[in-house]
Design brief:
Layout lengths: L1 H24 L12 H4 L33 H5 L3
């Protein structure tokens, strides 16, 4: 029963993060701006090799998921690498 609650909380957190990104990243033109990044900056850096709570976002569009060197990904994300 305890595992089910943990799984439900994790799902809720991820859903909330997704909604926060959707709300903050969308501008009238649909292109994110530097101001839209302020929510992400609390956990992520844009500097290569500088990881915070989340991995660096430098080069995020050119790399496979879960592949930032020096960042400790969860087992689930490591398995999803594409």
């Amino acid at each position: 029963m305890k595992m089910r609650r943990v799984a439900l909380r994790a799902t809720a957190v991820l859903a909330g993060m997704s909604l926060a990104w959707s709300a903050s990243a969308a501008t009238p033109t649909g292109t994110p701006t530097a101001a839209d990044f302020t929510r992400c900056a609390a956990c992520h850096s844009t500097q290569a090799g500088q990881n915070k709570v989340g991995p660096s976002l430098a080069g995020v569009f050119d790399r496979a998921s879960g592949s930032v060197p020096g960042y400790s990904y969860s087992a689930a994300l490591k398995e999803m690498r594409t």
